Amino acid sequence: MPSHLRAAAALAALLCAAPAAASDLEPRLTLAGPGASARTVALTLDACSGATDHRVLDLLIAERIPATVFVTRRWLDGNAAALKLLLAHRDLFEIENHGDAHVPAITDRPTMFGIRTAGALEAVRREVEGGAEAIEAATGSRPRWYRDATARYSRDALTAIRADGYAIAGYSLNADMGTSLMAPMVARRVAAAKNGDVIIAHVNQPGRAAGSGLAEGLRALKASGARFVLLRDAETRTDDGPAIGPVVARSRPPGAAEPASGVTRH
Predict the structure, then answer these.
(1) Within a domain: residue 69?
(2) What total of structural domains would you count in the chain?
(3) Which of 12, 109, 119, 176 has the fewest Cβ atoms within 10 angstroms?
């Protein structure tokens, strides 16, 4: 076959494959009616597994900064003392669903950022319900919001989760890129939050530099006069964002830093 025909055939194959490879979504969430006189943001924190970053949690309590905390069953099982703190400050903390075992709600590819995905809708539903049951047992309340591992979803999973009554917790400002950023960068990103931003960050990596930057940025954001709201108290606007193509496994996920191996980084 002539070289120009081979090139055309290869291009056609890539174009035919593109829709299947670009079927996953990364929903965006913002505040629909942010404050007119003060910068208003919603802070959301993921507690995927692992420990508790008290640089962040203790600052929130001391400075009276509200946060919506997305917890997995795995994190609840290993952080009884931190859960007690959250429950002792119910006016500050809203506890929402991050799943049972931190599994991405994706059915059309085997991994996302190196994390094994659910693979099927039945597994997605088990992950969502397992997280909900753990939260209800720990707090006495059913969660309303859901955010999966990596904050990315296949279209069918997104539809199924919403059909079960959950609002999908996207975000508009990624503060720590799965705790992969250094403290100064995290501090700058948080301090620069715009009016109406929904911030995503992590509260379960005390050994990483990102946590100190998050605390510094939140302190600066509050000092600037910004107002923090919980998702349960906010009017929000969401869109599912553009379709996402193939992902290089070694790159960092926007909402998680956990590798495919047994080493837990969240």
Answers:
(1) yes
(2) 1
(3) 12
Does 248 reside within a domain? no
264 located within any domain: no
pLDDT tens-digit series, residues 127-178: 999 999 999 999 999 999 999 999 999 999 999 999 999 999 999 999 999 9
Structure confidence at residue 14 (pLDDT): 32
Beta bridge partners of 45: 69, 201
- For residue 241, the number of C-alpha atoms closer than 13 Å in the C-beta half-sphere is 22
- Asked if 50 and 264 touch (Cβ cutoff 8 Å), the reply is yes
Rg (CA), the chain: 19
Q: Are 266 and 151 in contact (CB under 8 A)?
A: no
**pLDDT digits 0-9 by tens, 56-72:** 999 999 999 999 999 99
With a threshold of 0.90, does the pTM exceed it?
Answer: no
CATH number at residue 86: 3.20.20.370
d(CA 231, CA 94): 8
Among residues 166, 202, 220, 210, the alpha carbon closest in space to that of 185 is found at 210
